[in-house]
Structures are given as structure tokens and as C-alpha cells.
Write a structure and sequence with these properties.
single chain; about 400 residues; alpha/beta; 7-stranded mixed sheet; 4-stranded antiparallel sheet; 13 helices; binds 4'-deoxy-4'-aminopyridoxal-5'-phosphate; EC 2.8.1.7
């Protein structure tokens, strides 16, 4: 690790050693997905080399061994989120599936006229499942406004909460702006109004410690691949008392207690929501990713990323013609911006020729982009392996683009 804001952890990530477009790779698309440390890659390989078998039904040793590893991974998720019990953790394919699970199980109890409240900064995956649910049940989807700094308008949030509000869905951290929402305060307000709260933690879990008991939320969803784990695996925390009463959603093997043609009965605990053979290797590798971040410490990771974000924000502010989108006081890991006279996609393409990977577009948050009256932004998003050189490359790339475009 070299120079300013050096990362002692970059060497753990083999992919960062490969050149891209004959340049040193500056990977600043971590909001989309993170790279994987050797420990995660090795855990995946070790599972298939040493431990592969189907879980929960085998009488043989290897099946028991794979089951133990899978259940240990569930305990790792419980530790990461500080759940009261690891049996409150359901494995899913990721945040999107976690939210759809809640919409399809808990959502069965909705009545016409009931309300779901989300915020104006949600990812489509915390909007569309609720729209589909409202279409099925006659419930109504509302959203609380956000301010010009990209923060939730608390007055509007309070005003929208009412006795018909059954559930509030909100991002812990906005993927498009990096705004950190005051989740514990919002949960208190929602509970006072009698609503449950689902937190979309996709952009939070890799960037700061998360404690579902301190937040007091009812559901917490996240994706493994944004936490240095594999794609196709994620989790949903459900408050134990709620989980016990949720009906199943997908039917099949593993989620039942008994099946007959007269009717079936359901397994208890998280298994009721894990029909079929799950992503066993992915769960175990997610467990390895959790061990990895916890061994470093999420407070240390948060401090490193805050220093990167401060530095990048300051340097981008100094560039003429650059407009930052989302200037909340409390932000995590994400810098969204526009450059006068250059479309974000063109900017992204030019940065790519310099080995700088960013994202350009609406970031699956079209209502948020409409709020700002823009079609999209360029977004640099940080992870623990980024350092000052990545910011230097980003700033130099933006200046190069400005020169090329004559702006
Ligand atoms: N919510 C937020 C805030 C996200 O950033 C993302 C991923 N971009 C998602 C939900 C969806 O996550 P996934 O695609 O892993 O299900």
C-alpha cells in the first residue's frame, strides 16, 4: 500500500492486481458489487473440495458436515447484525429477494386501504415489490419527500405516518447518494404509529457496524455480494415474534414438516422460508466474508472510507463545473456528481479508459433522479481497499474528460 489514505487490506483482493485497459485498476463501483478477498474465494473452493453435500436431510457424515457449516454461516449473519437469535435469520438470494419475501408473506395480511410508506430515495427493489403488493391487496403505497440535500424530510415523514400505515420501508444508506438515514429515530416514529419497519441494508452492512436490536427494526435485508461475499446469497433478519407467525411463500422440500394430499404442515424457524436446496456454498462463503470484515472491524472500515469520502468530496468540489448531488451531513461511501457539459455515460466511458470503474445512470432510483430533475449521475463508491491513488485517478480522469469535451 502506497501513499495517501493507503489501504492495508488491498493486498487481500487478487483482482486488484490485474491491470484493466493497461492501467492500474481503480475500482470505484463498490455500490454495485464489491471485489472478493482471498479468504472468501478460498472458502468457496474449500467447500466444493472438502465439504459438498446437500443439507438438512442426509443421514451420512458429509451431509451433516455441510449442514453444520451452513448453520454456522447463519450464526455469522446473526453476529454481524447482532440478532437476538440466529434463528431470526433467513437466507435469501439477496436484498431484492428478502424484500419480496416480506411483501409476499407478511403482505398477505394487508387489507384494502392499508398503507405502506417508503422514502423518496429508495432503490427500485424497495418500491416495486410494494407496488405489486398494493395491486394485489388494494393497499396504498405512499412516499415521504426528500430535501435538496438528499436527506429525508422528517416533517413529511411524520405527516405521512398515520393509523393506516402498516409498514415503513426505508434504506439504511441510499445507494444513489450515500445519505445515511437516522433509522433508530424513524423506527421509533413508525412504531408509535403502529407500523412495522423494514430496513434495506444493502449499502450499509459493509460500511459500518449494524445492530438490529439497537435500531429496533422488524426486518433487515442485505446482499452478500456488496459485503465482499458471493453473488446470489443474502439474508433477511425478521424479529422473532413476527417470524413465528409469518406464512410460507415458496413451497417445496425443506420448508415442510409433513406433506399429504389432504394438506401440509410447515417447518418452524427460518427453514419455513428456505424451500428447496439453497445456495450452500454461497452461504458458507458469505460467512467467510463476515469473518473477514469483523476481523478488521467495521469501525475501522468506516473510518477509512470516511477519510476517502472526505478527500474525494473536497477535491471534486474544487473542480470547476462539477456539481455534487446529495450533500447530506451524514453520508457513507458514495459520491454522486454531474460534470457540466458531459453526460454521465460519456464521463464513465472516458474514466474507464483510465482504468477507473464508476457507475453512470439512475442507479435503480428513478424517482430520486426525478426529484432532482436529472436523468442520472456519475457515482464513485468506496470500499475498504480503495486508497488515495484511486481518488487521484478519478480526479485526473474527470479533468481529462473536461479537456476532451472542451468544457
Ligand atoms: N437496495 C439498495 C439500496 C441497493 O443498493 C441494491 C443494489 N444496488 C439493492 C437494494 C438490490 O440488491 P440486490 O440486487 O443485491 O438484490
Amino acid at each position: 500500500p502506497e501513499g495517501r489514505l493507503a489501504s492495508p487490506w488491498a493486498a487481500d483482493f487478487p483482482i486488484l492486481a490485474r491491470p484493466v485497459r493497461k492501467r492500474r485498476l481503480s475500482y470505484l463501483d463498490n455500490g454495485a458489487t464489491t471485489q472478493k478477498p482471498r479468504a472468501v474465494i478460498q472458502a468457496m473452493e474449500a467447500f466444493y473440495e472438502q465439504s459438498n453435500a446437500n443439507i438438512h436431510r442426509g443421514v451420512h457424515w458429509l451431509s451433516q458436515h455441510a449442514t453444520d457449516l451452513y448453520e454456522q454461516a447463519r450464526e455469522r449473519v446473526g453476529t454481524l447484525l447482532n440478532t437476538p437469535d440466529s434463528q431470526d435469520v433467513i437466507f435469501t438470494r439477496g436484498t431484492t429477494e428478502s424484500i419480496n419475501l416480506v411483501a409476499q408473506t407478511w403482505g398477505q395480511s394487508l387489507q384494502p386501504g392499508d398503507e405502506i410508506l417508503v422514502t423518496g430515495m429508495e432503490h427500485h427493489s424497495n418500491i416495486v415489490p410494494w407496488q405489486l403488493l398494493c395491486e394485489r391487496t388494494g393497499a396504498v403505497l405512499r412516499h415521504a419527500r426528500i430535501t435538496d440535500t438528499g436527506e429525508l424530510d422528517l416533517d413529511d415523514f411524520r405527516a405521512q405516518l398515520n393509523p393506516r400505515t402498516r409498514l415503513v420501508g426505508l434504506a439504511h444508506v441510499s445507494n444513489a447518494l450515500g445519505t445515511v438515514n437516522p433509522v433508530a429515530d424513524l423506527v421509533r416514529l413508525a412504531h408509535e404509529a403502529g407500523a412495522l419497519v423494514l430496513v434495506d441494508g444493502a449499502q450499509a452492512v459493509a460500511h459500518a457496524p449494524v445492530d438490529v436490536q439497537a435500531l429496533d427494526c422488524d426486518f433487515y435485508a442485505f446482499s452478500g455480494h456488496k459485503l465482499y461475499g458471493p453473488t446470489g446469497i443474502g439474508a433477511l433478519y425478521v424479529r422473532g415474534s413476527i417470524l413465528a407467525s409469518l406464512p410460507p411463500w415458496q413451497g417445496g422440500g425443506d420448508m415442510i414438516r409433513t406433506v399429504s394430499f389432504e394438506g401440509s404442515t410447515w417447518a418452524s424457524g427460518p427453514q419455513r422460508f428456505e424451500a428447496g436446496t439453497p445456495n450452500i456454498g454461497g452461504s458458507i462463503a458469505l460467512g467467510a466474508a463476515i469473518d473477514y470484515v469483523l476481523s478488521i472491524g467495521l469501525d475501522r472500515i468506516a473510518a477509512h472510507e470516511a477519510a476517502l469520502l472526505d478527500d474525494a468530496t473536497e477535491r471534486m468540489r474544487e473542480l470547476p463545473g462539477v456539481r455534487l448531488i446529495g450533500t447530506a451531513r451524514h453520508k457513507a461511501g458514495i459520491l454522486s456528481f454531474l460534470v457540466d457539459g458531459i453526460h454521465p455515460h460519456d464521463l464513465g466511458t472516458i474514466l474507464d479508459t483510465e482504468g477507473v470503474a464508476i457507475r453512470a445512470g439512475h442507479h435503480c432510483a428513478m424517482p430520486l433522479m426525478s426529484h432532482f430533475g436529472i436523468p442520472g449521475t456519475a457515482r464513485a463508491s468506496f470500499a475498504l481497499y480503495n486508497d488515495g491513488r484511486d481518488i487521484d485517478a478519478l480526479v485526473a480522469g474527470v479533468r481529462k474528460a473536461q479537456k476532451l469535451f472542451g468544457v
